[in-house]
TrEMBL record:
Domain L,D-TPase catalytic stretches: 296-487
PANTHER family assigned to the protein according to its UniProt record, in alphabetical order: BLR7131 PROTEIN, L,D-TRANSPEPTIDASE HI_1667-RELATED
Gene3D superfamilies membership: L,D-transpeptidase catalytic domain-like (2.40.440.10), PGBD-like superfamily/PGBD (1.10.101.10)
GO molecular function list: carboxypeptidase activity; transferase activity
Keyword Plastid tagged: no
Organism: Elongatibacter sediminis
Family, as annotated: Belongs to the YkuD family.
UniProt key word Disulfide bond: no
GO biological process terms on file: cell wall organization; peptidoglycan biosynthetic process; regulation of cell shape
Family matches, as InterPro entries: LD-transpeptidase_YkuD-like, LD_TPept_cat_dom, LD_TPept_scaffold_dom, Peptidoglycan-bd-like, PGBD-like_sf, PGBDSf, Transpep_catalytic_dom
Protein name: L,D-transpeptidase family protein
Keywords recorded for this protein, A-Z: Cell shape, Cell wall biogenesis/degradation, Peptidoglycan synthesis, Transferase
Amino acid sequence: MPGRRGIVQVLAVLAAIALGDARSDTSPDELKARLESMAADPSASPALTDLAAVRSFYGARAFVAAWQGPACLERLADLSDAIKASDAHGLNSDVYHRSALARSKGCSLDTELAATDAWLSLAAHLRGGRTDPVTLEPDWTARRLDMDFAARLEQALAEDNVRESLLGLAPSQPFYRALKEALVQFRGHAARGGWPAIDDGPVLRAGDAGPRVQQLRSRLARGGLLDPSLAESTDPFDATLEAAVKTFQLSANLEPDGIVGAMTLSDLNQTAADRVAQLRVNLERWRWLPEDLGQKHIRVNIADFRLEARAAGAVEREHKVIVGRQYRRTPIFSGEISYLVLNPWWETPRRLTVQDKLPTFRQDPGAVDRLGFEIVDAQGRKVDPGSIDWATVTAQTFPFRLRQAPGPLNALGQVKIMFPNSHAVYLHDTPTRGLFSRVRRDFSSGCIRVEDALGLTAWILNGSPGWDRARIEKAVASGKETRVEVPARVPVHLLYLTVVPGTGNHVRFIDDIYGRDTAVLEALDG
């Protein structure tokens, strides 16, 4: 018995035939033969992006042409409009047979196949990205909504809704729309020649003068950070210019010292074309995500060192976070918070035990007790640090586990928030809270340290019977490890976005701390 998809497709074909829209110059036998020929020789014209999807589509409709008939030219015009509009999403419209369809003056078999391939490919790319996130981010686990694109195309043709049926597949998130608007703006900058670069040279700071200071002033004025009337000023580097430099640095997640050193200069000299590429990469990353991130959920943008707690489409809390350093990067994936632990013991991972702690304890065995650690054997029995020959033990021969008791020195602080995953990554408090005052915060070993972690805990448990802020603080004050189940699981999305919302309608371009943008751009253009 045919499934729902088959029934929908058969009904759509029969409806099209009844309306006279499926009349064509191409017989099912001709269409089937052409597809079989193309399968045997992939170089055959026209080159299709996804031959398998096209063959499956026509096989399900008994190889009856889908576009040919009295409405063909109108449908192709709508398709061409949608393909042109794909440029506004940072995609390359040429991938979707734009030129071939524009040259077509009729509804030949080649045009028929190109149109179907274009629609199916663009639909998949708008819905889930042109690139496969798993090949670029091996840790990726965000679940995208599966969609029957063939059935959707049948419906679009039956309802003569080719254009909107495609463009409606793009993300509806407000910031996706903001990225599209910024893409138009920066493409305009690029078309007008961009902005002047600042020549290489020594560090620029308050009191300096010369042509490079004028270039700096002109660059910041073009970026809207200085009054345009100051763009051509030859005055020395004054307090107004220093304030503008600090504003720029803050927006880019650079230390706001008002000094134009190597990192600030490099960021200032990013061209308009560079920013266009960065916007395209981030539009693609949004397409990787599921449309529904959860009515109540948490987003962590690793590149921006920031956590948002969101509900009903609004940000209810924001927290600074500390993420993994270069050689211990925080992975990009999604999970669900199922429980949390107040006053947690820290079961130190083996890698950190032998790489970080063992060298310290070999130099100073007394640090084991002083820092609140316990050493346990394979059976879970405590081992006296004094019984270990620290002079001879190595990373390879150290047979014990290390754990740290709850308390003011515990690396996890007062709470760890668990969304079980294969990476052993979680959110947690920290005793070293002074690091949150830094602008760039990639200091961890992969897990995510959260400023005001107890405030986030209260937000997560809001609505859970008996767990208000007062009870949370009482449990913490007890000093005892306490596991708390989260009845309504909260989705967590660890993201990596290098263009983020700014003030007003503006966006901020931030540092690609892990150097991930280039690979996405190359795949997007490949």
